[in-house]
Amino acid sequence: AATHNITVLPGDGIGPEITKVALKALTAAGKAEGEDFVYTEAPIGGAAIDATGDPYPASTEEVCKAADAVLLACIGGYKWDSLPNAQRPEKGLLRLRSSLNAFANLRPAVVLPQLADASTLKREVVEGVDILIVRELVGGIYFGEPRGFKEENGERVGYNTMVYRESEVERIARVAFDAAMKRGKRLCSVEKSNVLEVSQLWKDVVIRVAQDYPEVELSHMYIDNAAMQLIRNPKYFDVVVTGNIFGDILSDEASMLTGSLGMLPSASISEPGKPGIYEPVHGSAPDIAGQDKANPLAMVLSAAMMCRYGLNLPKVADRLEAAVTAALDAGYRTGDIMQPGCKQPRPSAGRHPSGSP
Amino acid sequence: AATHNITVLPGDGIGPEITKVALKALTAAGKAEGEDFVYTEAPIGGAAIDATGDPYPASTEEVCKAADAVLLACIGGYKWDSLPNAQRPEKGLLRLRSSLNAFANLRPAVVLPQLADASTLKREVVEGVDILIVRELVGGIYFGEPRGFKEENGERVGYNTMVYRESEVERIARVAFDAAMKRGKRLCSVEKSNVLEVSQLWKDVVIRVAQDYPEVELSHMYIDNAAMQLIRNPKYFDVVVTGNIFGDILSDEASMLTGSLGMLPSASISEPGKPGIYEPVHGSAPDIAGQDKANPLAMVLSAAMMCRYGLNLPKVADRLEAAVTAALDAGYRTGDIMQPGCKQPRPSAGRHPSGSP
Ligand SMILES: CC(C)[C@H](C(=O)O)[C@@H](O)C(=O)O
Ligand SMILES: CC(C)[C@H](C(=O)O)[C@@H](O)C(=O)O
């Protein structure tokens, strides 16, 4: 038995309410396995802007860096949408990722049999889909310099730089190959090397790293084709590795295969020994915040990813995942995944799946 | 009656065979309306590399610039895949677009009632979808400078620049607003302004141009969300305007709503009075080239777009589109869109729809 220090960032919108459910589930699952969790809450995003004027205050950075893992809900909302970019909630998220060097964003898109009809894609197309998208998270065009605005021939020009160095590609490629080895041993690297130099470098390095993983079947796909194949034949994919912006696009697209963003967790891992960030893929849904309508399952599954990848507590992870499955099997559904014949969770009896981990 | 000078670029793979069908249809449709087409063929892509060592030879550029419109089939193939980027077929395509300043790429994604079951998305989701994607085609990260490779701290670095200037955004925005005025009067501008400066500039300019189009309902969407909404609720979209790489990704994704790339035409238009480029969205499909299996309809529909947008011959365009509809209504299908109960076109009787424009 050990004590695990978790920094909890409830963020904005539905964040606080789904955090409550996830922590209840995590505490219970830990207790059953003799593991203790200590939670330190800190503000980020809009909540932090309101409290301190900064979407990622130094005090939050400090407790994140000191934690064993960071559990984040979601950030943002209409309220802060008109602020200049540098002061917006999103900037807090980007700075959090960067400050922890959380370079490998793992986004599973798994179609649960209970929800195979929830997708806009045909059941036979999505049934059995199990994709892991590995997105580079602290480089590429999100952070590339130079960036900004300039004046040229009397008009404004906006520019950003998409840049990758060999070591950045190599470390994310290794994460992806390692993940593929533990799964179906197929890896698809996605880039635009027929047009972009940065993608040619990406492809070269991935091919080099592949020599250390002879068992993994490596393929290469252009981003436009990948965006297409993900809908045409999603079962083709096992692990996908790609850069920051392409991963942003593909993982959101892939989320639709599952029918609900409310089900999808993610892990953003750093170097060994450093804390990772675990967060749902969905946003802060300000329109339904505070109404007890939000689906907490992505947050519970994010806590499970934290236990599995960040804390080496696979048994606690198993319990959390089993709790989610049990709630679904019992027919409980929030509005986003409601189907005929299913039931709304009863708030009075305690929100599932926290009741039974 | 007039004579129209068309530069025809059959390109590679299935290009020559679908070109033959499209020209036969175009000539017949023109004749019925008293319009004459004169075709000048020129090599591009792999065919041009084989003939001259250059994927876009000066002689091809010359006849393209001199034409009333350029009708292109498709380029590329395994054969040229290992050449360095600057000598590959794709580079010929990019240079063609740039040399004609074909800055506005119009890609309709229309779900034909006859093919509503061909998509991997549910019929009720795609039925009635009619989206026009307006993609900026000669700027952005495809052409931005600086670009290339450098050595830094003993390792290779690859980089590209995503850049837009006000005038570039303004002209593509105007094309999109004009198109929206002729359609459903809704325009969605797609960018990533919560992260990228180039996207903030994009958004600012689109908002400014919108003042000249008070009747058009303008919305803004981040590219990740757009990639998601395109599958979640495609009927939301009327006209979409976006930059070069985002448009590349979104238009390929949107093509899957229709069930077959073999059905999708595109137009790349330049300033008034300058020739545009009309081409199918699909690739050169080297695996089925020369077997009379390719679907020629996207190419026929590209010729129709040429007549409508480039030559101001709406009646010829109507005839070509009616011919496609007639062939589908008669139950003819190539392999890519084959459905139970439909028939293969009989080569002996002449490939439809060229028989009956
Ligand atoms: C909020 C935004 C900055 C962020 C991103 O683009 O990375 C989000 O879309 C995500 O994918 O986590
Ligand atoms: C072949 C390639 C360079 C091209 C592009 O990326 O523009 C293609 O994908 C397209 O969309 O026409």
UniProtKB/TrEMBL annotation, chains A, B:
Residues 5-341 form the Isopropylmalate dehydrogenase-like domain. It is found in: Cytoplasm. It comes from the Eukaryota. Homodimer. Catalyzes the oxidation of 3-carboxy-2-hydroxy-4-methylpentanoate (3-isopropylmalate) to 3-carboxy-4-methyl-2-oxopentanoate. The product decarboxylates to 4-methyl-2 oxopentanoate. Belongs to the isocitrate and isopropylmalate dehydrogenases family. LeuB type 1 subfamily. This is 3-isopropylmalate dehydrogenase. It comes from Chlorella sorokiniana. The chain holds residues 28 to 384 of 929 of the full protein.
